[in-house]
Amino acid sequence: MGIPKLTIDWLLDSDPALRWQVMQDLLDVDKETVTAEREKIPHSGWGKIILDTQNGSGRWNESLYHGKWVSTTYALYLLKLLGLPDSTPQTDIACEQLWNGGLFQGQEIRFDRTQTTRDLGVTALTISNVCYFKYDAKEIHDVIAFMLSQQEPDGSWWTNDEPYASDYIFEVTLAMLESFHHYGRCYPDRKKVLINSISKGREFLLSYHLYLKDNQPIKSQWTSFSFPAYWFYDVLTALEYFRSSGAAPDDRMFPAIHLILSKQGTDGLWKPGKKHSGKTFFTMNEPRKPSRWNTLRALRVLRWWLSAKEF
Question: Is pLDDT of 2 > 90?
């Protein structure tokens, strides 16, 4: 898959957090060069901005979860997306705050003040964060066992048993699958306990071609590629999960791939999706300008897809 030099140069003219991913995922640059670029993240640009706003207790915005999108949960989530090296010292105390402050009955994470409301999506986000940063969370294997036990017969997960939960099945299912991906990387000897559940979860998403029912989008907002996605679901974010987790392309992804291609502009770039409302640390997409992040994400998904389809 040939990418114009002009596009590559434009992508590289950015933050270290984006440059190292372009080097690795689009250019196949040697590991040493990629690592050197990635190690700049804590010291410059977006990564440094986030780390500099962490308080002495290890939290952001004095909050574990609330105050989106600048709470401790979403600061770590964003640092994970940027590719902050997992050895960065500041993340250890943040993960400790997150885990110890949210662990409920040794089997899930709850951040509401009274811990009365189950939210498996929040549990999944937390697992992804602490596992990405390789924090040795107590009882994490028990939490994973609980998460596995909550999977529905059709392969999906519901955030809880409240009536509104049916509106967020895709969001929670993708979050769960992403958390298992990071857990498996952190604890490779435990991967085998996840295999069946991951297969069923992927099958659930694929049975809807990632976003369709009766050939129509289940939610129109899923066709807008917001970055960061946070806890929201969209087609590009779903495809990114399948790519990054090492899944093989599936023919049922054809409509999703076609959607990605349809969003490419005549300049070969992708625009930003609708921005999720809330306070942020900074803006990574210039208003009314193409999105470097969406262009990178779309190109590497297409590269993954085409590499498996070329014979």
Answer: no
Q: At 257, list the tokens.
A: 């791939």
pLDDT tens-place string over residues 75-110 = 999 999 999 999 999 999 999 999 999 999 999 999
Per-residue confidence band for 310, with pLDDT thresholds at 50, 70 and 90: low
Q: Please tell me the pTM assigned to this model.
A: 0.97
